[in-house]
Specification:
Blueprint (H helix, E strand, L loop, with lengths): L5 H20 L3 H17 L5 H21 L3 H36 L14 H16 L8 H9 L1 H4 L7 H9 L8 H35 L5 H32 L17 H7 L2 H15 L6 H19 L3 H22 L6 H20 L3 H11 L6 E2 L4 H4 L8 E2 L8 H16 L3 H6 L5 H16 L13
Parallel strand pairs: 1-2
Helix pairs in contact: 1-2, 2-6, 3-4, 3-5, 4-5, 9-10, 9-20, 10-15, 10-16, 12-13, 13-14, 14-15, 15-16
Length: about 475
């Protein structure tokens, strides 16, 4: 069930909301929790009911390990249980997400012919696995104080953030569910939640899904891309992935607010970043937090000199790339960002400075170009786009411009129909909207300044109406694949 579907907006979300608060009003506290867990599992199983046993197995196993660790019988036993828990999670993730990738590389390296397992990737396995690894680490550090199974089940399965995050900590969620005040309808949270949800829905339906058509045509269908086509395709995906994922996160935050739960902000205008380190402080903030706290710092962080720090950064970004997908394009994407962060650290050490506009242009274009590897099905597909970016496959303009710029044909520029369904006017309009939404206040900043008044009411009605009327073909969110 997608956030951008009629079933979710008009049936599932309001039904769960009213029943949950009705049970709380009748003081059926445990019943309301159980209902929320069952509803979340129904939401999760909507795509494929076979996914439910996997998340239940993961949840029950991690809960039991956490309880035994917290009992504190001995340091050696706790260390052993903690290791077993981490290995279990990594094996579960590795089996479902990376087994066929491993077989593919073994076959290529050894010339063998091992059959693929053809395992269907369970939805959200990367997110709920990382979330539970964080829970085990926090438990091992004695930072988790309560171990009620129903509360733990809500922590893992809470449907607004179950599928694609944000990745949350047990300690930042459970006090909210335990709060008596949060079991009562809060009208300010309703208005704020709908406000944020409407922004996210607009981002997904109107902006991201429009860019998706052009990105897909360029990456998946075109045999080659000329200079302007390649730049249009790369920009299309750069904006698609931002508005798709930040749109999902806004809808998750908005839906959670209806239940008086505040999820952490996951984006802070990442395309405003002036360097790569700044980008990772703004993009997918909860994943960056996880990688820093549970990989980079345990590896040693920046405590053991420049060389060690560089290796730790490289390992962290490499794992971050692999987390996103089983493929060499993701590994290469992670490596490129690792090199960029290391170079940025060296640059800072030398006390160099750069004009802010130039710094933004370099940072944005690096991000734009590296997204090509993230999106491409394979290295050859990525090279196709890169060839186009530097003009190796020629220069063409859309026939729409031929009457005004026909003189350019004297210089070898052709006028041909661009990518199927590509509309120059619409591309320019959506591009302008995208830049506008990036450089004005973001949804996180708007939340802080939100006031429930007539202006915000008309704003929400306008966004929701326009977005809902333009929901035609439901499209998955990009991070569902990760």
């Amino acid at each position: 069930m997608l956030f951008n579907s009629y079933e979710y907006i008009f049936f599932f979300l309001p039904l769960v909301y009213f029943i949950y608060f009705y049970l709380n009003k009748r003081h059926f506290t445990e019943g309301s929790k159980a209902f929320l867990v069952v509803s979340s599992l129904f939401f999760y199983g909507w795509w494929n009911i076979a996914y439910i046993p996997i998340i239940l197995l993961s949840m029950i196993f991690n809960y039991i390990v956490g309880v035994y660790i917290s009992s504190g019988k001995s340091k050696n036993i706790n260390r052993f249980l903690f290791a077993v828990g981490i290995i279990f999670n990594l094996l579960l993730l590795g089996y479902f997400k990376y087994a066929d990738f491993l077989i593919e590389n073994i076959n290529f390296s050894l010339g063998s012919n091992i059959d693929y397992l053809n395992i269907a990737l369970p939805l959200a396995i990367s997110f709920f696995t990382f979330q539970q690894i964080a829970y085990l680490v926090d438990t091992y550090k004695n930072e988790v104080q309560e171990h009620d199974f129903l509360n733990y089940a809500i922590f893992v399965t809470f449907f607004p953030q179950l599928i694609a995050g944000p990745i949350v900590h047990h300690k930042e969620m459970m006090p909210q569910f335990a709060s008596k005040r949060n079991k009562i309808i809060q009208y300010k949270n309703i208005s704020l939640g709908i406000f944020v949800f409407s922004i996210g829905l607009f981002k997904k339906v109107i902006i991201a899904d429009t860019f998706a058509v052009w990105a897909s045509n360029g990456f998946d269908k075109a045999e080659f891309l000329t200079f302007f086509e390649a730049w249009a395709v790369s920009f299309s995906y750069t904006f698609q992935i931002y508005f798709d994922f930040s749109g999902y996160t806004d809808m998750a935050i908005g839906a959670a607010l209806l239940f008086n739960i505040r999820l952490p902000i996951n984006f802070n205008s990442p395309y405003k970043a002036l360097n790569i380190q700044d980008f990772w402080r703004r993009w997918h903030i909860t994943l960056s937090r996880f990688l820093r706290d549970y990989i980079y710092i345990p590896l040693g962080g920046n405590r053991n000199g420049d060389m060690s720090t560089s290796l730790n950064l490289f390992a962290t970004f490499l794992l971050g790339g692999i987390w996103h997908g089983a493929g060499w394009t993701f590994i290469l994407w992670g490596m490129l960002h690792a090199f960029a962060v290391v170079i940025h650290r060296i640059y800072n050490k030398l006390n160099f400075s750069m004009n802010k506009v130039l710094a933004w242009i370099i940072t944005f274009n690096f991000i734009n170009i590296t997204w090509i590897f993230f999106r491409a099905e394979d290295i050859n597909s990525a090279l196709k786009v890169l060839r186009g970016l530097v003009g190796l496959d020629g220069f063409t303009l859309h026939p729409y411009l031929e009457n005004r710029l026909s003189f350019l044909s004297l210089y070898g520029i052709e006028f041909k129909v661009w990518l199927t369904l590509f509309e120059p006017k619409k591309f320019i309009l959506i591009l302008l909207i995208s830049f506008l939404m990036i450089f004005i206040k973001n949804s996180g900043e708007l939340q802080k300044n939100f006031r429930p008044n007539l202006i915000s009411l008309f704003f929400v009605i306008g966004l929701l109406s326009y977005s809902i009327l333009n929901i035609s073909n439901y499209s998955d969110f990009l991070y569902f694949d990760f």
